[in-house]
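A brief tutorial aside. Many learners find it easier to grasp structure tokens once they have seen a single protein encoded end to end. The record that follows does exactly this for GH19783. Read the sequence first, then the structure, and try to relate runs of similar tokens to stretches of the chain.
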Amino acid sequence: MSWNQFIGFAILGLTLAQLHSVNSQADVTTCKSPFALVGDKCLLFSNKWLNWYEADRQCRSQSAQLLSVQNVSQLQAINNWMNITNPYTIEFWTSGNKFGNTQNLYFWESTGQQAKYLPWAKGQPQPKEGDCLMLFSPTYGGVVSSDYLLSVRDCAAWATIVCEQVPTNSVQRVCLMPNSFEMAQVQQK
């Protein structure tokens, strides 16, 4: 064995010894099945037609809440997701409502917070139409628009639903060992 080959094997041996002790970490955001990660939320669409109260109960039965929209980036992510996965859906319930409020202030049932970001559809809000909020995709000449905007509806009306859950954050750790590969996800709280 030549001196160059010996040095090459020595470097290779040291490199492999170092790989043995590598600990790599990556933050991973996941959703429980059958929810899908959409922006910063885990969402699940249901094509069941329910009134607002039944829709809220349906989401809660899956350890989730009806959808809330806090900002423009969330609305864009929802619009993109719905247009890809459910392109012919015209309307669906959100958790927004004005129950017991005479000042026409809307709140997100899912968070208890006042709804500050309210991207209204044309001609909305119409408080006399009801107490609940849905995301509505207007039609133009029989063609469904690709953008959902808020609309006030009677809570007893029927619509499809989108439920949301908070994503699970975990750390993914990879440990390389001489004869195996192990991976573990550690849930962060």
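Self-check: The CA atoms of residues 25 and 173 lie 5 Å apart. If you spotted this yourself, you are ready for the next section.
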